[in-house]
Write a structure and sequence with these properties.
154 residues; alpha+beta; six-stranded mixed β-sheet; 4 helices; 27% helix; Transposase
Amino acid sequence: MKYKENKKNHLNEDPILAVLLMKGMYPYNNIIRDIGYDRLFVHYWVAQEVNSYRNYCKNNKIPTISIDATGGIVKSINLLSGRKTGHLFLYQIAVMDCIKKSQFLVAHMISERHDNNSITHWLTEWVRSGITTPKVVVLAVAHTGRFKGRSCYP
């Protein structure tokens, strides 16, 4: 019953078409930055995240970001071509502000591609949105399922 009720609010049954429609609608037109169909990717971030990062950069001489990717959160989907996407990973850029002792996210990507070119494209588009280029980029490696990124404490 709840599923049918929620389905009434969907813009389109096809999730890709729904995201494409959302990209042209307020407020999503200011959140969804770039979409690719084959191979699938979506880049997105909100103004508040960019502003938080800008404020962080004003107080830190060496802006540092951490990038982490997580699989299993986003399910593979069937495309209009009939092809089922490969594994979709959620990539996120996190900042650990050691001065304020807080951590926050600044950008996100859902992607079927997991290579340097795709990640570089995402980061380039994020930088083009007018942010200060980070001086240090830490890639998170999680062998135990726990984030192994930057810490304020040794």
